[in-house]
Amino acid sequence: MNAFKSALQLTKGKTFFLSENTALRYLNFSALYFAQGAPEGITFYAIPAWLAMNGKTPTEIATYVGVIGIPWSLKILIAPVMDRFTILSMGRKRPWVLFGQLCLIISFLVIGFVPDPINNLSGLMLAGFFISFFGAFQDVATDGMAVELVPEDQQARANGLMWGSKVIGVSLTLVAGTALINTLGFSTAIPFMSIAFAFFIMVPLCFRERPGEKLLPWTQGKASEFGKSIQLKSWKKILKNLFKVFILPSSLLLAVAIGFNGLLNGFMDTLLPIYTIQELDWTNTDYSQVYSIVTVISGLFGMFIGGFMVDYFGEKKMLSIYLVLYIAALFTMTLMASFWGFTAVVFGFILVITLLFVFMSIGFFASAMKLSFKRVAATQFTLYMAISNTGRAYGSDLVGTLKELFSWEEIFMLIAISPAISLITIFFINFKKHKKYIKILDHSK
User: Fold this and answer.
1) Any transmembrane segments, and where (predicted)?
2) Residue 94 lies in a domain
């Protein structure tokens, strides 16, 4: 909260356009990423914990998480549409951000009308699918806006603030959502959360991308010259440029690394509530409180340290360190199986892997922005994120199968394969050589 107040103070006496105000950019994207984390806190964490508390099997829970994760894998189909069409007089991506946020509020209201959600997983999955779809929709628009507006020398720090804000959003809504579900009941609690989400639409409503643009369709303003100069008007050009840059070696290597990082995310998202509630006899309240504490801590570290570390030491070095530490944490947890009954041990493990995952995400996001080609930067960046989310959905779906075949100790060992592959892959990424290829592409027709 203090960070947002400080950012507001920094904007005093300065222009209130995102393209011209660094502090305002940080504030805007932090708020929008917090708004993205809020729905995830409910759908990916609070609801699975609630299902586990009500006796649903690991396979049923994994299926639910896998289904609601599908829209996040489809973002690459949305991004080119946003690059191709927009209300340019309101900005390149701002109109899409507003639309996504409005639909997200409506979809949260709808989930409250699912009858008997505990015994109606199909209805719950369908409603959750639409929440995820519009969450992913807003995410694409926000990422596209960030790629276009944040200068390269600010990308790591911006990603730290953005990802940290998202993690805190997940945490706070997990706690609030769990408390409301337990006190008011599911059908009342979840729609009630949409009231809070409604406030976030004020952020893109108040700040324009560039000078001279309209605040709303019926207000005065016009498209900026910069916006008109980079607006893509041909599907052929979008696909041609995307293909040229994506088949470059470093692009492909990052895609593989990000995909396995997403797989790791999916594993842990689905595994933790099942493991703690059904194996260790925690309640969903116990889980939500622990997870919320560690995510707030991780989010704050990500906001104020994660971006700085990447800026100072570089993406490859920091990602390598984080991945090695993550693998070590999984092996350590396996060796300490006899101590799983001690809450402090499990709490420490969840804190370490959550902190490392936040730092890894900042590094991967900054790398994706760094490798993006300006002509198709929004679409290329979204493609990386779509690959990550495909891995996440697949990882979530695999948890049920793994639990049927292996013990918890063996599962933790097997999960370590994912960060190990990411570690090997990023070793071969060459940012300098990639930039040389980009310069050649930039001068080609």
Assistant:
1) 61-83, 95-115, 121-140, 161-182, 242-264, 290-310, 322-340, 346-366, 411-431
2) yes
**Beta-carbon contacts of residue 292 (< 8 Å; ≥ 6 apart):** 171, 172, 174, 175
CA-CA distance, 44 to 49, in Å (whole number)? Answer: 9
Q: Tell me, what's the pLDDT at 422?
A: 96
- The rounded distance, in Å, linking the Cα atoms of 313 and 326 is 19
Task: State the pLDDT at residue 7.
Answer: 44
Query: Strand pairing partners for 17?
Result: 208
Q: 208 pairs with which residues across the strands?
A: 17
Encode burial over 320-342: b for 16+ CB neighbours within 10 A, e otherwise: bbbbebbbebbeebbeeeeebee
| Cα gap 72→11, rounded to integer Å | 33
Host domain of residue 260: 17-442
Which tokens belong to 258? 């990000």
The CATH number of residue 271's host domain is 1.20.1250.20
Cα dihedral sign for 188, 132, 271, 176? negative
Mean pLDDT of 225-243: 78
Answer for the pair 437, 256: CB distance below 8 angstroms, yes or no: no
Task: Please compute Rg for the chain using Cα positions.
Answer: 21
**Which amino acid makes up residue 428?**
F
pTM for the model: 0.76
